[in-house]
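pinned: reference chain
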Amino acid sequence: MTARTLVSIDQNGGWRSAAAAGFVKAEPKQANALASARDHRRLANMAIWADLPSGGEDHVETILKAFGESGRIARDLWVLRTLHPAAAVRAAIAAGLSTGERSLIIDANRGRLAWSNLGLDAETKLRRIWDGGHKPAP
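pinned: its structure tokens
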């Protein structure tokens, strides 16, 4: 039996991988995918910032409403409660961004970040700090 073997723990079906059912240890890549899938089944609170010089705020609000309960709390800041991952929210928003427009999605519950068009310096700094590579000054 491998981590990907489908098993059922009841007679009525309910098939899932042997790793998800706890019969075998998941492979590292698969373990990350399983954890990610579990994350997407619980609600998450997100903060969404978007710099929209061309005025696409209505577009962002429409998209966020499709993902769950949302509200605008400032000119360029929204909150969202959703089952979807930050990357999916980012992809939907990014599809409607114009040149020079930027966005940042913070998933407060899952500890995830997603962004669009922030630029290389900002993205490098985000990754370094968010992933724990930055040590605060004493």
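why pinned: The chain has two domains: 6-39, 44-130. The two ends are 51 Å apart (CA to CA).
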